[in-house]
Fold:
Amino acid sequence: MKKHFGAVLSRREFARRAALLSATSFVSPAARLDLPSDIVGDYQVDAGGPKLSPEGQAEANARYQQVLSLYGDRLNDEQKPRVKKMCAELQKALDHIRSYELQNGNAPALYLKPLYEREKRQQSTGATGKP
Amino acid sequence: MLKESLLYASVGELAKQIESKQLSPVELTECYLERSEKLGPRLNAYARLTPTVALEQAKLAEKEIRRGHYRGPLHGIPYAAKDLLAVKGIPTTWGAKPYADQVFDYNAAVIEHLKNVGAVMLGKAAMIELAGGMGYTFASASLQGEARNPWNTTCWTCGSSSGSGAIVAAGLAAFAIGTETWGSIVCPSAFCGISGLRPTYGRVSRRGTMALCYSMDKIGPMARSAEDCARIFAAIAGHDALDRSTLPVDRAAFTYSPAADLKSRPLRIGWLTNAWKEVDPGVKKALDAAHKALAQHFPSVRAASLPDGPWEDAANVILSAEVSSAFSELIRSGRVRELTDPRGQIAGYVNLTISGADYNTALRLREILQGKMTELFDSYDVLAAASLPVPATPLNLDLDKELSFPDPLGGIGNLCGLPALSVPCGFTEKKLPVGLQFVAKAGDDMAVLQAGKIFQQYTNWHRKHPTLN
Structure:
């Protein structure tokens, strides 16, 4: 396990890391304590990845850190840049859907319909074995 | 030994001969099995052949027909099922190493439906691992390796119903069952020069079928013609009380009668001008000819365009989030590393981070889009465009780089659960098939089938087949 927070941090560095961490809402406490130093210092997505806004880049990097924190030991050096690029690609899609103006009343389209009483009865009848 | 041309006959043509007892289902099954044993491995088309089951079902069909108990147009007709449909007692691998030894003790609903109408299962068709849900970069992302296109074995069939496409195109079965979450029926049908129907979401029960994306998965036929797709669809469609995603009885069922007058309902065709950004010149030439044919044989063909918006990204977010939930255990356990494809080994880790809020935003966009598409279908009965803007691609292509282009029609069609039919409409100079796609409003599967059937009455692309020695 790497130790990253043992060293003294400058105020600016601390603020930068804090901003990164807050960009994603569910980084686990364990992940916050186990940020690889080579990642924290790197804000830019890989060359060849999509162009993102500064906020989008921060969020993409935070997402990448989250993946590394949880599953980094399973990823080799070849896979890590690919994961990072995927985070940027996902970020682009998320930014795009978030930019669409939705009203509070715009409800989600859920195909899976509620279980009707009629169906409940059918299923329970089937289970008891109707003659 | 039956003539090769008979192995390429349509379901309708085979059914006539079987019903009149001129053709033995057992002999037909033996011929398909022999051809499948010979050519299947060359194409990596099958996950496995099931000769014991096939011959048992064929003998039963023959016995029943001799006794005068003819079940209908699929009675005694051999088919292949994509290897994500559970078949009792036979491995169902989902095309992926972590599930290589998986055996279910029940049949998928579709397998049951086909059994009930007397169809004969020849085997399980190869597929892209987990139907491509974890992402893939290479055609080789399958337990069976890359599926080879019968028209040119250095080219791919497309996925994820890769084996189903190869099997039908190579005359190894009369039809196959495929599934589509996004492109997995339409693309292999186009690349392989066959007809493939992606039904409206909820018309075919998915009970016993691998779930990839609960709100987008569909099961459909891949066959020689639009009419064959209609016959097969009629056998597998219908409400299932045990699959809550199926539509109510009156909306899910589909009946087809070949005697129905195709011109009784004049179809208004919308020729899409913004389905693809760029189209390969060879594909464009075939498409232009198809456009002319449509203009000649349909009462109205006008330019149409898809609504602008982040629909493809919404579809991607929904797909990625639902896949990561469906295979959460595989990803979290780390067994995802056993997948073949380098992208599939890692994409799940990223997809697991999609938040509930973003997923819900994508679902809300789906609602908006459904409204926009309903409006569009006030003006058109069927939208038409190239199934894919390119012909079959080389086997070793990096799909991330070379087969990665915007697909708004696929995104919109699958996000809204719209029916689509891909039919062959010509060839490129390199003799690779080109597909024409019809899309209709949800529930109007008949419209795309009708459009395809009319198109195939005036063209013969669907009667072409590759030469395989």
User: Anything to note?
Assistant: Chain A is about 55% helix and 0% strand. The CA atoms of residues 16 and 58 of chain A lie 10 Å apart.
